[in-house]
Design goal:
48 residues, mainly alpha
């Protein structure tokens, strides 16, 4: 929900309380971004 919109992370975390591991969230973002690149390459995405 906040992938690519880190400015909204504080609002989302506030809804879950203070026991949220922000490093785990950032690790998930990294994984999703890397997997997204793989999908784009496999499906012929070309930024040029």
């Amino acid at each position: 929900m906040t992938l690519g919109h880190e400015e909204h992370l504080g609002d989302v975390v506030a809804g879950y309380g203070t026991d949220v591991d922000l490093d785990a969230i950032r690790a998930w973002w990294s994984l999703r971004s890397l997997l997204g690149v793989r999908w784009l390459v496999e499906h012929g995405f070309d930024p040029l």
